[in-house]
Write a structure and sequence with these properties.
alpha+beta; 3 domains; three-stranded mixed β-sheet; 20% helix; globular
């Protein structure tokens, strides 16, 4: 996209890029995608996308069953909502204004005032206050990344939406695949969310870095903290699931870099804190709602570099050059095995990719379901316990 856009002087003109596309992968209606790992030119919050061919499901009153792009009122409101995110604003359920979500506004409609007729065509009063009084860098594109400004940062006035909803029935266990890793290796972390209460709890359906609810911090032995969070910071609709009493589910994170750069740049013990935050499901009412939050911690020991080549590979900043060095390094190679196999497979060398995976060293480092699924798709192989990788049986 950057190659097709001209630049502008942000001190003179704020130029936003609005993409109207048939469908979006991560969310049905719209997304402000220009943040974190998807901000390819380091100018935060200048791009947003809106779907045109999403078929509006039942429950959206007067526009149910229509193609989203043809439901002009609802479609335009969703575009303005994503533009609000580009201005740094978060979801706001205090009224039926722009920064509330489409599903909540639709649920709140009454018989005499059905969606989309019940849309409030303005920002909420407290969002207007933010737009008027936040520092310029928190609002303008090219300023601070999305999420650095929130409902309580920078502080203006007290806001009941700053409260966290204590999820005492939920437990988040955070465990590393390995208790120690060499400098420059990714740290694989398992998140296990359990319902320890007596009733079902509505939770996010996804709790990995492709969701929008994960955020965390790594604190090294010197006390320096570095943040990380989901690749997708905010969506108009979050997929949810019911977690029954006694039920658990797990997902894996691969941690290497965050907004502050490398998460594990020094050797020693690092503490990893992961927090899941999400908006509780709407009960059909507009009003101040706290965020649900649950947190877990673990530690990992980062060992120092073993050889000069390892030191060189570990301190490469990012990109394909760093990967090409890491996959060949004796110390780091086993930790990048799946990446190395993927590079070979996408280059057409599937047999070479299989040989990378069949190497006995580091077999236990391939842990996550997503990694195994990727190898199955690319190479037609799957892991079979301690027997290594075997061809997928076709039925």
């Amino acid at each position: 996209m950057v190659a097709h856009r001209d630049s502008s002087d942000l001190n003179v003109e704020w130029r936003y890029h609005v993409l109207a596309v048939h469908e979006l992968d991560s969310t049905p209606r719209g997304i402000m995608y220009d943040a974190y790992a998807t901000d390819s030119n380091n100018v935060p919050r200048e791009g947003l996308g809106i779907s045109t061919h999403w078929i509006i499901p039942a429950g959206y009153r007067l526009v149910s069953g229509q193609r989203f792009g043809l439901a002009k009122t609802a479609h335009f409101r969703a575009a303005v909502h994503e533009f609000g995110h580009a201005l740094g604003l978060q979801h706001n359920k205090i009224d039926l204004g722009y920064m509330n979500t489409t599903d909540v506004i639709a649920d709140t409609g009454t018989t005499s005032n059905l969606f989309p007729n019940n849309i409030k065509w303005s920002f909420a009063d407290n969002d207007l206050e933010r737009l008027c009084h936040w520092l310029d860098a928190f609002i303008r594109l090219g300023g601070v990344p999305f999420g650095n400004a929130s409902n309580i940062t920078p502080p203006i006035t007290s806001d009941s939406r700053a409260l966290d909803l204590d999820m005492s029935d939920l437990k988040l266990e955070v465990n590393t695949l390995l208790t120690e890793v060499p400098l420059g290796a990714p740290v694989r972390v398992e998140l296990k969310l359990s319902n320890t209460g007596s009733t079902p709890v509505t939770v996010p359906a996804k709790i990995d870095l492709k969701s929008s609810c994960v955020r965390g911090m790594v604190k090294d032995s010197s006390g320096t903290s570095r943040d990380f969070r989901s690749l997708i910071a905010c969506m108009d609709e979050y997929p949810m699931r019911e977690l029954e009493l006694g039920q658990s589910f797990s997902r894996w994170l691969t941690l290497l870099r965050g907004g502050d750069g490398a998460l594990f740049p020094n050797f020693g013990v690092s503490e990893i804190t992961v927090c899941l935050r999400w908006a509780p499901p709407s009960m059909g009412d507009a009003g101040p709602l706290p965020e649900a939050a649950v947190e877990g911690k673990t530690t990992v020991f980062v060992t120092g570099h073993i050889t000069p080549d390892h030191a060189k590979a570990a301190h490469k900043v990012k990109g394909m050059e760093a990967l090409s060095i890491a996959v060949k390094d004796d110390a780091l190679g086993p930790h990048w095995k799946v990446v190395g196999a993927k590079i070979r497979a996408k280059g057409g060398d599937k047999e070479g990719a299989k040989r990378v995976l069949e190497c006995k060293e580091g077999a236990s480092l391939i842990a996550s379901y997503d990694e195994e699924k990727m190898m199955k798709l690319l190479l037609g192989i799957e892991r079979e316990g301690k027997n290594g990788w075997v061809s997928v049986q076709k039925h």
